[in-house]
Write a structure and sequence with these properties.
The protein is about 30% helix and about 30% strand. The chain has 4 helices and 8 strands, in the order E-E-E-E-H-H-H-H-E-E-E-E. The protein has an 8-stranded mixed sheet. Strand 3 and strand 4 form a beta hairpin. Helix 2 crosses helix 4.
């Protein structure tokens, strides 16, 4: 296995034996090319990585919007922004949605950290902006950047 491969657009990718992937860890977002089996086409994965790298703002906006829409009910129903033990809490305000996070605020606070290119999909990890107690958000997208699944 080559120790390093390079993209003229992104830069060097170092081989990580533990994860069987090539990784580019410079910059605010880490990119990796997952070698799922001996037939994985690294050039194809690199081409996909370069495409997203060149269209990063567009991809990030679309990804964050889809993740927010997918997880907003889970956030507001199970990770409330109020103290349930507060004896002065107005439950009518709670039921009325006063403490709910909007999808716009959700999108604004999450941050894309990792993009892993796999044969059948793109896997991403985001920081949660403390919406879920500091847990990472995991999302999978098809090659047209449509959300397949997201969870915390």
């Amino acid at each position: 296995m080559e120790k390093t491969i390079s993209s003229k657009i992104i830069g060097p990718f170092m081989y990580n034996e533990e994860f069987n992937s090539y990784e580019h860890t410079e910059g605010k977002v880490y990119y990796s090319l997952k070698l799922e089996n001996e037939n994985t086409n690294v050039d194809e994965l690199m081409s996909r990585a370069e495409k997203i790298f060149c269209q990063f703002e567009e991809f990030e906006k679309k990804a964050k919007t889809q993740i927010a829409h997918h997880l907003i009910d889970y956030k507001n129903d199970f990770w409330p922004e109020f103290d349930e033990d507060d004896e002065n809490l107005n439950w009518d305000d709670v039921d009325g949605g006063k403490y709910d996070v909007s999808t716009e605020d959700f999108e604004r606070v999450i941050t894309l950290l990792d993009i892993e290119f796999r044969v059948n999909h793109i896997y991403c990890e985001c920081s949660d902006g403390d919406l879920f107690g500091g847990h990472r958000i995991h999302a999978e997208f098809d090659h047209d950047y449509n959300l397949i699944h997201a969870d915390v």
